[in-house]
Amino acid sequence: EGNKKESRGALVVLEGLDRSGKSSQCSRLVSFLEGRGISAELWRFPDRTTNVGQMISAYLTNTSQLDDHTIHLLFSANRWEKRSMMETKLKSGTTLIVDRYSYSGVAFSSAKGLDIEWCKAPEIGLLAPDVVVYLDISPEKAAERGGYGGERYEKLEFQKKVADYYKVLHDVSWKVVDACLPMEDVEKQLQEIVLDCVTESGKGKLLSTLWS
Ligand code: 2DT
Ligand code: MG
User: Fold this and answer.
1) How do residues 78-117 score in pLDDT, each as one tens digit?
2) Which percentage of the chain shows pLDDT scores above 90?
3) Which ligand has the nearest atom to the CA of 149?
4) Order of strands across the sheet with 95-99?
5) How far is residue 29 from each of residues 13, 32, 68, 135, 192, measured CA to CA in Å?
6) Residues 6 or more apart in contact with residue 179 via CB below 8 angstroms
7) What's the rounded Cα separation, in Å, for the pair 28 and 39?
8) How far is the CA of 16 from the centre of ligand 2 (A)?
9) ipTM of this complex > 0.90?
10) Closest CA to ligand 1's atom 12
11) E strand or H helix that includes residue 176
12) C-beta of residue 126 within 8 angstroms of C-beta of residue 80
């Protein structure tokens, strides 16, 4: 397009425990952005639609058993197989709202006892989010919300360990939102954070890679 450089989209990641409200807030955010004329897509990890994703899904539903290291690498591979599409979309100006990313990968596997640095290693070189929003809820409150399905990690004791590892991963790119506020308030806070982020990314802020 002539010499005017298209502005890129923002890479926004939502993280949090199961039942923290990530999935509903992600879809609301996409509708909100689209309503403001901002091109946006909802992505989620694991992406269960790919071959790797189907192996992950079988593991999560207890249909298959896998060594902890093996499943960790599959989760990572599932992000790597989407990396180039992610970059293409962002560079074409589409903002991606991503439900879970590398932080889930590291928090959940570390909670099983794997070394945290080992867990981070396969994520090196993936695109770094412009912002990570952590929907903060205690494991006990999340469990009270009910609706844990029967999936492998959906147990209070395990979620407590995951919460501890999420805390270790917080860095300057993280914004913490209290997930126990009324849904509309959580939504408002998210909208502000994401609009700011989209504006910044559109001003020519370069994409970077993990872990930074
Ligand atoms: P959903 O309930 O959001 O579908 O997640 N998980 C997720 C990992 O252990 N490693 C990862 O890299 C990712 C992205 C979190 C399914 C479960 O998979 C866990 C919950
Ligand atoms: Mg779940």
Assistant:
1) 999 999 999 999 999 999 999 999 999 999 999 999 999 9
2) 92
3) 2
4) 40-44, 95-99, 11-16, 131-136, 174-178
5) 11, 5, 33, 14, 10
6) 16, 20, 21, 135, 136, 137, 186
7) 14
8) 10
9) yes
10) 105
11) strand 174-178
12) yes
